[in-house]
Amino acid sequence: MLYSLLQNRKSTGSVSNFRQELSWEEFARQTDRFATFLDQPGWNSFGLTFECELAALACCIALNKLRKTCLFVPSDHSLVTPCDVQVHALPSFRLEIEENENKKAGYETDALVLYSSGTTGTPVAKNRLWATLTDNNHVPGFQPDTHWISAYPLDAFAGIQAAIYGLAAAEHLYFIPPNQYLPSFKADAPVFDLVMATPTFWRRNLLHPDLNIRVRSLSLGGETVPQVLIDLLKERLKVEKITHIYATTELGSLFSVSDEREGFPKSWLGNRLSNGTQLEAIGEELWVTVSGTQEAQNTGDLIEIRGDRVCFTGRKESIINVGGRKVSAHRVETALLSMDAIADARVQGARNPIMGQIVVADIIPRKGADESQIRADIITRFKKHHRPEERPMRIRFVEEFELTRTGKKKI
To answer: What is the pTM of this model?
Structure first.
């Protein structure tokens, strides 16, 4: 899949990580050099770690060419089946796994192994055969004179999807780690046709004083996309189109919506979408049946119906139990983000000997905002519009949030 896209794409343009830039011809030669080195008898499974996105992508494509197994190793190497034998200067570890051990560890041959984000727990490995990486999706054709940015890491499903689409369509493709800020662009910098990133990436960058990117469209995924963020991005960046892509590491890409409204149409429930995916609301959770299967699977995402929309309200494991009453961390966080003086917020539960748990809010204030006034405004708002148990009982002001490796706020 990846190697055929690289072979078939036009040779014009370049791939860059804003520190190094290669023409697509140079990148293809580097990929072939990696393939030559990695094509050794008995070497079938490799684990990639990386600091350079371009080298890691070239290694990944080389392994796809050789039909070997590629596992992107999370920063916590203890999650991976052992045998970390360094492969010379490559950004890679070789996994010494015999065929029977390979099956025991759960790794397929001729596959890509990715770990889930671990936002709310231990990351879990998921095998995806190379040939199935674009299931449920249409890969776009080449689009000349286009500039795309991916702010997803390659060791996440969204990062691989972004790389696939970029290889197929973009004349110029750029990668930036999700925990970095966009560079300050010169006046003659291109207008970027598409930036693919998490909502957290944009909340962080909207706070940066040097943000001066010109962009036509955005693709958001990996987290819920509240209306307040959609409206803010439209206002600040003057984008023509915002698309929310819903995907999971386990099930792949499931659907996208581009009407610039939070959630997705209620009419989609119970019906097969054009890609064969079927969505169902069972209780307060979203269940999906992917194309070619009959069994519905629980996504773990909570939803609620608001008029003609189905809106995401967080993860099942993010519910806070305050004195026996369930509190949605997402609902509290959305309320905080609607306040003008708050740039970003993170809500979670903390143990309490009396209530079991209490609501804790970490706040990044907007520049110049008064923290004591923010506290007072939160108390006023939650007394007026929310149940008592939803009010944050502990408020902490921070400069930034710790992120997961996939660029999401770490809970």
So the answer is: 0.85
